[in-house]
Write a structure and sequence with these properties.
By secondary structure, the protein is an all-alpha fold.
């Protein structure tokens, strides 16, 4: 069990730097892109042509890649759950309009544009059963999630560092694959979302770096605990109509793996990146327990690699209700 008082004090000290965090890692509202910058303009003369072009490219996308795009959209649309969770972290005062609560609100405002853009794209593309997508989204928000972090800021920032990096990879890969087929407009949409996620990942990784400077042993133990539990994606309770919570997740992750958008190898690579970014091997002044955690973490990528090399992705494609037959 972690020491809540110590965590709160560390968060209070870091909270004094939030203004700098916002200016370094988030973009002012007046300067950042908005969804309409990339979507057909209903008032424009070329609206019909642009929608037809969008629909043509959407029809040509491979099934697994298209399903992954939809799942990425649904994951982004469940943003209300993520904001409410982070707002409850120890050390974040929701009633304070400055400090950590301002970071969460500003981060949420940037993230909100991602689901908005992809949702409108899917609505226009003509290949989806939009009602089924909306049902999955509502269920995902309703069902919530369990990240294994409790309200511990240390564990939550490990999670967000990992998850923001993972979403960057997923959006970037979908964009790259779309571009290869000539779908440059979708590629641009995915690219700008991926760029946002990369900035957000840098921010959360910086938060963890600062915590390692202030409370290295407890931060090390929190990192170890999260990796022992394994990082679950925020949409792990995803389901379709008529299903139980979580019943759809394995099918979606299999599709992402087959499409080479997000794979087990990516999980290992992200872990290795975090170990390097946080200079885990070189952190000293640790308690005996934290030293053991450090050793465990440094050996973990090799252990996971042996497991991943033996795994095979199912070839069978699940028929998602999201996609029109």
């Amino acid at each position: 069990m972690y020491n809540k008082l110590v965590r709160t004090e560390v968060m209070r000290n870091l909270g004094k730097e939030v203004g700098k965090f916002i200016s370094s890692y988030l973009t002012p509202v007046e300067k950042i892109w908005q969804p309409t910058d990339f979507l057909p303009d209903p008032s424009g003369e070329n609206f019909k042509y642009e929608v037809e072009e969008l629909q043509s490219y959407a029809q040509e996308m491979g099934y697994d890649l298209f399903v992954t795009l939809i799942g990425d959209c649904i994951t982004e649309e469940a943003l209300p759950s993520y904001e409410s969770w982070i707002m409850g972290i120890d050390g974040i005062d929701q009633e304070n309009r400055s400090g950590w609560s301002q970071w969460v609100r500003s981060w949420t405002a940037e993230e909100n544009r991602h689901g908005d853009l992809l949702n409108k794209y899917l609505y226009l593309c003509g290949r989806v059963n939009m009602r089924e997508i909306e049902i999955t989204t509502q269920y995902l928000i309703q069902d919530g999630f369990d990240l294994g972090t409790s309200m511990d800021p240390y564990r939550n920032f490990v999670y967000t560092s990992f998850q923001e990096t993972a979403t960057n990879i997923s959006h970037r890969r979908v964009g790259t694959l779309a571009k290869q087929s000539g779908n440059t407009k979708l590629a641009k949409m995915c690219a700008v979302i991926a760029a946002d996620e990369a900035r957000h990942a840098k921010a959360y990784k910086h938060f963890v770096t600062r915590i390692f400077e202030l409370d290295p042993s407890e931060m090390m133990l929190a990192f170890e605990d999260m990796m022992k539990k394994k990082i679950v994606m925020p949409a792990h309770l995803m389901r379709e109509s008529g299903q139980k919570a979580g019943e759809l997740w394995s099918h979606f992750s299999d599709a992402a793996q087959r499409a080479m958008v997000y794979t087990g190898q990516d999980y290992i690579n992200i872990l290795s990146e975090l170990l390097n970014d946080w200079k885990i091997e070189h952190i000293d002044g640790l308690t005996e327990q934290a030293q053991k955690a450090q050793e465990y973490l440094m050996k973990l990528p090799t252990r996971l690699q042996r497991i991943t090399d033996r795994l095979a992705t199912p070839d069978l494609q699940y028929q998602f209700k999201w996609v029109k037959s």
